[in-house]
Amino acid sequence: MSRCVSRVLLASCALWLAPCLGAQHAPAPRATRDSLAHAVQGILDRAVGDSAFPGAVAVIGTHAGPLVTVTSGHLDWAKSPRPTARTLWDLASLTKVVGMTSAMMQLVETGKVDLDAPVQKYLPEWTGHNKERVTVRHLITHQSGLPAFKQYFKLNVSPDSTMKLMYSTPLDTLPGVKMVYSDIGAILLGQIIERVSGEKLDAYLARHVFRTLGMTDTRYKPPVSLRSRIAPTEVDPWRGRHLVGEVHDENAYALGQVSGHAGLFSTAADLTRLARAYLNGGTLDGARFARAETITKFTTVADSTFSSRALGWDTPAENSSAGHFMKRPAFGHTGFTGTSLWIDPPHDLFVMILTNRVNPTREHSKIGPVRVEIADAAMRALAPAFVAAQEGHSSQTGRP
């Protein structure tokens, strides 16, 4: 066997064995954490200087807690405080996993929801051509055949009337034909949670998820008393005001600001607790919100040739915000306002970035490279052997 072939085989073995071997993790040395903090600070400061967002907080940690917490900029482009771990951010589509998916995990685990049951079992009034063929699994993997989005909010009707419009939306394709990331599907999943649990979505999450995990600041519709801690989002042309504490997503606003697809506000401190619970097999400080096997079920991609989507969660794929080095079984999600969370169980690692990149306008689109740079910096610092194996494999095969 040639030396070249041997090096390729060794690199390949190291690439796939490293996550398994990484289950036993020693605490990161102080020098490593300091170097990583310096790197992340530079990334965020450059992004603020480039007007990618007015402020941000990034947290990189393990099941035991944060290793690095870095803040940059201010809450607004106007004179305002610097972000902290207790700043409240509009999570946008992180709501889909922090809220809706967490609830669905619990209801599936207890047998109250069957992923392979027709949606009409739980929402019989959701009728229309071929809708009887759509299952809960289709909704949560974005394969329902529903369109991605419609501007229902422009009709200026009541929350109940807006929901009726959601129910009446026809399918674009048969279910299972393709993956189309759909807010409408997530909204329907929120409705299933309410129907099955007998509780409003915000009440269910507060009682069964956030209280269980000690996430004291995570909520829909934060009160005015918290305004000084909330990062403003867009100067919204539709509502005619700068949004502070109002959900940025217009359809969520039209639905009364509580929805399965958007509406949650949270802090870096609270989301750290959620990430730790995932890395601890569903438990934190003696409380359990889901079983380890349920977490595995919801974070495992069903068919990587079809889509990178797991159940609610996304998984690393080419050009994703997970960067170049995170690989499955890592999982994560992003939010339109500039938020993201990636969790890598084999490396006992999470990478969280919270920003308000839509301030003052959603036309700011420089968040993508920032997410990748921070994820890559975390992996280089905390999983250097795994990264080196991937880079060695790529150099030998000529493929990333």
Protein traits:
about 400 residues; alpha+beta; Beta-lactamase; five-stranded antiparallel sheet; about 40% helix; disordered N terminus
Question: Your description of this structure?
Answer:
- It is a single chain.
- The chain has 400 residues and is α+β, with helices and mostly antiparallel strands.
- The protein has one domain: Beta-lactamase (3-Layer(aba) Sandwich), CATH 3.40.710.10.
- Helices cover 39% and strands 12% of the residues.
- The protein is built from 13 helices and twelve strands.
- A five-stranded antiparallel beta sheet has the order 2-1-12-11-10, with helices on both faces. Strands 3-7-4 form a three-stranded antiparallel beta sheet.
- β8 and β9 form a beta hairpin.
- α1 runs antiparallel to α13 and α2 runs antiparallel to α12.
- The N terminus is likely disordered.
Order of helices and strands: HHEEEHHHHHHEEEHEHEEHEEEHH
CATH architecture: 3-Layer(aba) Sandwich
End-to-end separation: 24 Å
Strand-residue proportion: 5-15%
Major sheet strand order: 2-1-12-11-10
In terms of per-residue confidence, which ranges show pLDDT below 50 for 5 or more consecutive residues? 1-24
CATH topology: the name is Beta-lactamase
